Amino acid sequence: MSSLPVRPNHRRNRARRILIGTAVVAVVAGFNGPALYRYGSEKYHDYTINKPEYKAANGHWDFLDVPSGYRINSIHAALLHTGKVLLIAGSGNNQKNFDAKKFESVLWDPRTGEFKKIPTPKDMFCAGHTQLPDGKLLVAGGTKRYEKLEGDVTKAGGLMIVHNEDPDKPVTLPAGTRFTGKANGQTFVSKDPVLVEKAKKVFDKRTGRFLRTEPGLGRIYVEAQESGKEYETGTEDNYKVEGLTGPDARNVYGMAQKLALDKKDFQGIREAFEFDPVAERYITVDPMNEARWYPTLTTLKDGKVLALSGLDEIGQIVPGKDEIYDPRTRKWKYTGIERRFPTYPAIFLLDNGKLFYSGSNAGYGPADVGRDPGVWDLKTNKFQKVPGLSDPDKMETSATVMLPPAQDQRFMVIGGGGVGESEESSEKSRLVDLKDPSPRFRDGASLEKGTRYPSASLLPDDTVLVTGGSQDYRGRGGSNILQARTYDPKSGQYRRVADPQVGRNYHSGSVLLPDGRVMIFGSDSLFADKDNTRPGVFEQRIEIYTPPYLYRGDRPQVTSGPRTIRRGQSGVFKTPQAARITTAKLMRPSAVTHVTDVDQRSVALDVRRTADGVEVTVPKNRALVPSGWYMLFVTDDKGTPSEAVWVEVP
Asked: Which residues of 565-584 are buried (b: 16+ CB within 10 A; e: fewer)?
């Protein structure tokens, strides 16, 4: 059958319908073009990043599925020798949690995906922590009081220095002690008890003659009895301690500078705990001598732990009173020397037993005190400055890593920002070789942007994963940096890898897991929008980065081996891929907060192939290999690491 002819008016109507339809599509596309483009771009991006060849070259990011009941404001994270990760929030930078005494910790098992809440006895928000020789985690310090910004302070207050001129006895003043100014007549009340040591008699060493008496000193926070600006003081005054009689009334008195309504910083606590990974609970130990908020804990050559810096119970920088924890006695003792650093200073144990301060820190402290990097001899208190640091005024919120292998004693300082709430940030990566007789910083490869709060984790293929951060203070102005890269210490170059999905800045960090992946947690943006109009919300999502080496196919396996190897001794580990194994290393597990992790290090091991495995030898140097638990990784000729096995160096 032949088709009917199309009449001219039908042709005109059809053409008109096509034109109208095309116009409608064009209008709709005009309104929705950007959305359609974004939709298409996102779909294409998702398609691209999930292609096997892309993952093999750049790795991949996934969100960790955390049940709602276990989502916390993770401020601290530590990998335990059980393979589980302890996440600590304390009050989580949340005043309401603090007031309600809601302090939280969560234990996550990467193998099973299980979560467990851990009863948390004190506010460990902004504590310090480090791995102990027996595998427990030492946690010390935390929050006694949240900061009060200027305008929120209703009662004048500040630091009172209590003097005791009696050389025969110390004095304890209870909380609620009243101090009245002799000149200003104002009365202030102490918030806590204070012990004031007895005065010290000073003698001439040559003649033995008595020279003078130096008063014992105590520090205490005091507040006015009533609210109001009229109770502020403007100058130094001598304060009578009410309730004292006889010689005590003469020997004990207070001295205070300005007591005002200005901003009051966070205050620290003395409490310390060991977390037992086997019992999965906190154990109370002897409190520190000094209250500390934002302290650093660094393991020493003998397994003891140095605690330094932090804000004290007054909210001021601890005045250089460093102290040492002995895991055997579970007690603290002053070092007897003083050296001042900003809070959370990045201080690492060197292979000669000395300490290296890289200049990295997390913020609080004078801009001109204790910020120069250098090598510190704790025995003599000698501090040798290391010159050449670029952007030295932008070291706050920078990250420092001991580059692999630890035997090389090379360090890299990454990014950082200006002091306080500065908008300035650095894109620099500074390198220093402490094996050099005259060590000096030099610039390495740069980041693309100035970066505060970069997270840096050592990987078992001897590269470093650097991710996250923001250009401005706490991500202001929508300045989070959604980039990740690996750094190769051999080539000295960065290489961009897959980008994370979540911005990370203040209160963030990263942890290498035993299976070779990396966990990235936290972030506490000041604002939630680019225009800085909406308050930020703490980032509770956790991301897991799977590096390219886990997309190469089969990886080496370690099927058996000793659980303990002493320094200087060897152990044989069986592996079906023995012929392909080229390297082995011990990696100390992380304990990280505020992108500060002085625990992590990667120690290269001597390797000898056997018929069905490899024999590895641990270096003899106790300062290079501190006692404790390590992840042992072996890598094949393609740089692909095995899953770690846990080994104890006793």
From this structure: bebeeebebebebbebbebb
Residue 8: which pLDDT band, with cuts at 50, 70 and 90?
very low
pTM of the model: 0.90
Of residues 16 and 160, more confidence is placed in: 160
Average pLDDT, the chain: 93
d(CA 511, CA 92): 19
Burial profile 330-355: b = 16 or more Cβ within 10 angstroms, e = fewer = eebeebeeebbbbbbbbbbbbbebbb
Which residues are CB-neighbours of 617 under 8 A, at least 6 positions away? 568, 569, 570, 605, 606, 608
In angstroms, rounded to a whole number, what is the distance separating the alpha carbons of residues 409 and 75? 29
Euclidean distance between CA atoms 201 and 343, whole angstroms: 33
Rounded Cα distance between 137 and 131, Å, is 5
* Phi and psi angles of residue 264, each rounded to the nearest 5 degrees, phi first: -115, 120
Task: Tell me if 134 sits within 8 A of 201, measured CB to CB.
Answer: no
Confidence band (pLDDT; 50, 70, 90) for 628?
A: very high
Strands (E), 30-156: 60-63, 76-79, 85-90, 104-108, 115-119, 128-131, 137-140, 143-145
**Cα 573 → chain centroid:** 34
Instruction: For the chain, give the longest Cα–Cα distance.
Output: 134
Average of per-residue pLDDT across 237-253? 96
pLDDT of residue 444: 98
Sequence-ordered alpha helix ranges (H) in 228-327: 246-251
Q: What are the phi and psi torsion angles at 23 (to 5°)?
A: -65, -45
Which tokens is 366 given?
């004078």
Starting at the earlier edge strand, list the strands of the sheet with 442-443.
399-402, 410-414, 429-433, 442-443
CB 513 within 8 A of CB 110: yes
Q: Is 246 helix (H, G, I), strand (E, B) or coil?
A: helix
Q: How does pLDDT run across 528-559, given as a tens digit for each residue?
A: 999 999 999 999 999 999 999 999 889 999 99
pLDDT digits (tens, 9 = 90+) for 576-600: 999 999 999 999 999 999 999 999 9
Residues 6+ apart with CB under 8 A from 309: 292, 294, 295, 296, 317, 318, 340, 341, 342, 343, 344, 345, 365
Beta bridge partner(s), residue 570: 617
Provide mean pLDDT across the span 313-333.
94
| 292 close to 318: Cβ distance less than 8 angstroms | yes
Are 515 and 463 in contact, with CB atoms under 8 Å apart?
A: no
